[in-house]
Specification:
Two copies of one chain form a homodimer. Chain A is α+β, with helices and mostly antiparallel strands. Chain A has nine helices and eight strands. Chain A has one domain: Jelly Rolls (Sandwich). The first copy, chain A, has a four-stranded antiparallel beta sheet. A four-stranded antiparallel beta sheet of chain A has the order 2-7-4-5. In chain A, a hairpin with a 5-residue loop joins β4 and β5. The interface between A and B is medium-sized, with 30 and 30 residues. The structure holds a DNA duplex.
DNA sequence: AAAACTACTTGCCCTAAGGCAAGAAATCAA
DNA sequence: TTGATTTCTTGCCTTAGGGCAAGTAGTTTT
C-alpha cells in the first residue's frame, strides 16, 4: 500500500512494521486549512496533532505587551503539534497558524492513545520523536546565545529555506529574535556580500 | 517502604503504583560524584541517567571557539540526563559536570528499557517527563528572545536560587547568554535597586 | 480606480551588552 | 605562608541591534 509522503517520512522507524504503519495510517483523517487559519488558539486544549503533507505552519506565543513571537516553523512532512497541551492535558499558551493553504493528516488524542497502547513500536517511535524535538530545541536555545542574528538567519536559510519564501518578514524576525527593521538590514547585507 | 526524596519526587505519577515504585527504585544504584567531576563527556555514549539526591550539576556545550556555554543547571530532586545520547544512542555533544559533591541514584539503559517494557505506567511517566522538559526548553528559548538579561537573571533566581549560591558567575553568565562582566554589573544593579 | 491595508526598506539616533584590561579578593596548591 | 590560579568587579570605549518614523511597494477591499 502507498501512503502519503508525510506519513512514511514521519513514521519511519525500525520498530514500526508495514502492518503497524497501516493501522497507524488508518487512524488519521484528512483535513485542510486555509492560509491564515488558526489550527490551535491559546486557551484551548489540544486534542490532536497533524502530519503536514503540504504547506507551511508557524507556532507563536504572545509576550507581555501582547506582541506575538513566532516560536517555530513547521514544514512539509513534519508534525504540527503542541506537546505541552496534548500530552499534559492543559490549555495551551501557544497559537498555531497556517501560513499557506495546508493539507494535513490529523490524528485525535483518543486514537493516538489507542495506538500507543496497542502497537509496541509506536511507543518507541514516540520517545525517539520527543528526543529529537528536545535536541532541536536545545540547539535553538544555544544558537540564540552563541550566534549573531546574521548567523541565525543563515542557519534558518540552510535548514528551512521555504520559510524565507513563504513567511512574512515580521514572523521570521520575531523567530530569530530581532526586529523587522534589523532583519531587513541583515537580509540586504547577506544579499550584497558573498551570499 | 521509604524511598529517598528524589525517587518519590521524580517518579510521582498517577500511573505509577507503590508496587511499581518499588521495582523502579530497585533498578537504581547509589553513586557519588565530587565537585568538578565530569559525569558525562562529549563524544561519549550515555548509558544511564541519575536522580539527584543532593548537590548541583550543570550541562555545557562548547561553541566554535571552544568556549563552554552552560546549557542547564540540575538541582536536587531532578534528573541528570542527556536525552539525545541516551535515547538516540549517539555520542553526546554535551558535557555534564558536578558543581558540588553529589549523591545520585543511577539507572542504566538496560534496566531502564526493561522497566519501560514491563511497567505499564512507566511509559506514560516517561512521556509526561519529556513533555515537561520540552515545555521548559521552549520557555527558555522564548525568554532568550523576549526578556532582558536582567529579567532572565531574576527568573533564574526565582526558579533555582541555589544556583546563584553555588555556581561560579561565569557559568551563570554563559547560561543567561551574557558575559561575566555584564552579569557582574547586572547583579550589582539588582542588589542596589529595589531587589 | 480609489482607499485602506500590509509588507518591506531606510535613515537618524540611542542603548544594552561586549571586548579588553587592570586590579582586588578569594581559593587552592605545595 | 607564599605563590599561583580562579573568581569577581570596574573602567573605558566599541558595537550590534532597537525605537521611531517616513516612505515605497504591493495587495485587498469596495
Amino acid at each position: 500500500m502507498i501512503y502519503p509522503s508525510c506519513i512514511t517520512e514521519i513514521y519511519a522507524h525500525p520498530g514500526i512494521s508495514d502492518a503497524d504503519l497501516e493501522s497507524i495510517f488508518r487512524a488519521h483523517e484528512k483535513v485542510f486549512f486555509h492560509k491564515g487559519d488558526l489550527i490551535l488558539t491559546e486557551g484551548q486544549l489540544s486534542n490532536a496533532y497533524y502530519c503536514l503533507e503540504k504547506g507551511l505552519v508557524r507556532a507563536f506565543a504572545r509576550n507581555i505587551d501582547g506582541k506575538d513571537i513566532t516560536t517555530g516553523f513547521i514544514s512539509k512532512n513534519e508534525i504540527v503539534i503542541e506537546v505541552a497541551s496534548l500530552f499534559l492535558r492543559q490549555p495551551t499558551k501557544e497559537n498555531i497558524q497556517a501560513l499557506s493553504d495546508c493539507d494535513c493528516w490529523m490524528i485525535g488524542y483518543e486514537a493516538f492513545q489507542e495506538l500507543f497502547e496497542r502497537i509496541e513500536g509506536f511507543t518507541e517511535w514516540g520517545r525517539t520523536w520527543m528526543s529529537r524535538a528536545l535536541l532541536a530545541n536545545k540547539q535553538r536555545s544555544l544558537s540564540m546565545i552563541t550566534d549573531s542574528a546574521t548567523n541565525r538567519y543563515l542557519r534558518l536559510r540552510g535548514e528551512q529555506p521555504e520559510v524565507l519564501q513563504v513567511a512574512p518578514l515580521k514572523h521570521i524576525a520575531s523567530y530569530l529574535g530581532v526586529t523587522d527593521s534589523s532583519l531587513s538590514r541583515i537580509r540586504k547585507e547577506v544579499a550584497q556580500t558573498g551570499r
